[in-house]
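REVIEWER CHECKLIST
Item 1: Sequence provided? yes
Item 2: Single chain? yes
Item 3: Sequence as submitted:
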Amino acid sequence: MRLLQVTASKGWRGHEQKIIYLYEAFRDYGYVEDQWIVCVKDSEIYKVAQSKNMQVIGMDLGGEYDLKFAKALKRIADENRADIVFIHNSESHTLAVLSSLFYGLKIPLVLCRTLIKRVDTNFLRKWKYNYKGIKKIICVSQPVVEVLKYAVKDHSKLCVVGSVTDINKFQHTDTGILRKEFNIPQDMKIIGNIAAFTAMKDLFTWVRTVAELKSRGVRAAYIIIGDGPQEPEVKSLAQELGVYDDIIWAGFRKDIPQVLPEFDLFLFTSNNEPTGGVLLESYACRVPIVANNAGGIGEVLIHGKTGLMAEVGNPSSFADKVQELLYDEPLQKKFTHNGYEFLKDNFTKEVIAKKMFDELNEVLIASKK
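Item 4: Structure as written out by the authors:
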C-alpha cells in the first residue's frame, strides 16, 4: 500500500498527534510500502514531521475551497503512485472531494472522523459525506458513528477504530518539573487537567468543582494545562467564585509526557468527548482518573475498574469522586494498574495501527476488483 495522509489543520491537537503515531506505526510494522503526509506548509504537523525525517509535503492553503490545493493533491497522488488518500480533517475532506470531482483523482478516499458533531445540518457538508469517492469513514468511537448516521446514507461505510497512544512516549516517574516551576509544596496533592478551552471540554464545570472542593476543605494544587477561545470566560468564572488564585493556569505546553506523571489525580470534565485520548495518556503515566460518561469516554474508562465516573456537568458529583479517590492509595493502585493493562491491550500504536491498516486494506482490495 502506498498511502497519502492529508490534513489541512494548522494547529496541534490530538488528531495531529494521531497522524504522526500512525505514520510511525505503519512504517515500523511494515504495513505500507511507502507513505507521505500532505499538509499545510509550516503548520505544526509539518514541523513535527520534518523533525522526525518523515516524508512530508507542505502546501500553501487558501481555504477550504482552494482549487490549487485540490489540483496539486491529484498531481501528488499520481507522482507517488498512491493507492489511497487518507483524510484527517474537515477542510482536507472538502479538498479531496474537489480533487476527485474536478481534477480526476480516482483512487479511493478514506475519512478519519474524531468529532461528535452533527454534519447533516448543511446541504454541502452532508453531500460531501455521501460523495461516491468516500469508500469508508473510520471513526474513533461508536458515539461518532451514531451522530454520523444522521447524514451518511450507507451505514456500512462507517466503522470504529479506537484512539491511539504511544505507550513508550510517556513515563510514570514524577519529574518534579511542575512543583519546581510553580513552587508547589511536596506534601500537596496535584489535581490537574490538560484541555483546550473549548465548549466540549467544559472547563466551567472544572472550575466549579475546584470551588466545591475548596469549600469542603480539600487542600490541593489545581492546575490546568491548555489554552483556547473560552479562556477569558473560564478565568472570569474562577474570579467570580473566588478560586482564581487557587488554580495554576499553566497555558499550552509541549512537555506533557514529562509533567503528566506529576498529577496525583486527573480531573476530566469534558461533556462531549469522542474518546478522551488524554485519559489513555494518564493510564500510561499511572495517574488515577475522575471523569464522566460523556461521548466516547465510556469506551476508554470503566467505572470502578480503571477510574471513577461522575455525573456530567455536576460539580458536587465530581467533588465526591475526587474525595473518594484522592487519599485512597489501594483504590488508586487498582485503577492505575487496570488502566495500564487496558491501554496495552486496546490502544497502543501497534494495536490501533493494525486495526487501521485492516480497514484501509479492505478498501484497497475492493478497489482492485
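Item 5: Key structural point noted by reviewer: The chain has a mean pLDDT of 95.
Item 6: Recommendation: ____
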